[in-house]
């Protein structure tokens, strides 16, 4: 039921952990199942240079978090904001329909982290 890529990202998740001095942090909960995901970003010259994640969730949520950290690394903030749950699912070779909601977390947490960074930056002006 899962693609090989989903299983690979679930078994060997990339960029797991926390960035202690993160420039932006986004945490979202999934109303469907109560799972939680946090994404930490480091930003330099409007580009996401590093990301890490912590996910308390199902296998699909872990695979989508792992995948979004790979998709967003090196992207500008604007490009990061445009990454959708559909992009995440597609890069993973698809998700079973019942698991599509899990990919919401990854895209939402990334967007929250970017917004958090922008808010902090705004506050420093
Ligand atoms: Fe909760 Fe997938 S079942 S995120």
What does the model show?
- The chain is an alpha+beta fold.
- The chain has one domain: Sufe protein. Chain: A.
- It is built from 5 helices and 3 strands; from the N terminus they run αβββαααα.
- The chain has a 3-stranded antiparallel beta sheet.
- The mean pLDDT is 94.
- The structure holds FE2/S2 (inorganic) cluster.
> What is the strand arrangement across the widest sheet?
1-2-3
Strand content is 15-25%
- Number of discrete domains: 1
Query: Which ions and ligands are bound to the chains?
Result: FE2/S2 (inorganic) cluster
For the record, give the distance between the C-alpha atoms at the N and C termini, rounded to a whole number: 50 Å
List low-pLDDT spans. Answer: none
Order of helices and strands: HEEEHHHH
Mean pLDDT: 94
Number of helical elements: 5
The chain-level structural class is alpha+beta
CATH architecture: Alpha-Beta Complex
Which CATH class is shown?
Answer: Alpha Beta
Rg estimate, integer Å: 14 Å
* Count of distinct strands: 3
CATH third-level topology: Sufe protein. Chain: A
Major β-sheet, in short?
3 strands, antiparallel
Q: Tell me roughly what share of residues is in helical segments.
A: 40-55%
- Based on CA inertia axes, which overall geometry fits? globular
């Amino acid at each position: 039921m899962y693609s090989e890529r989903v299983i690979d990202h679930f078994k060997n998740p990339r960029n797991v952990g926390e960035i202690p001095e993160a420039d932006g942090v986004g945490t979202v909960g999934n109303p469907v199942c109560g799972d939680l995901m946090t994404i930490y970003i480091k930003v330099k010259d409007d580009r996401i240079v590093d990301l890490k994640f912590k996910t308390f969730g199902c296998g699909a949520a872990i695979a989508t978090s792992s995948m979004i950290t790979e998709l967003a690394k090196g992207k500008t903030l604007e490009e990061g904001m445009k990454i959708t749950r559909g992009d995440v699912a597609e890069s993973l070779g698809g998700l079973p329909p019942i698991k599509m909601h899990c990919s919401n977390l990854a895209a939402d947490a990334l967007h929250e982290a970017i917004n958090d960074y922008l808010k902090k930056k705004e506050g420093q002006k």
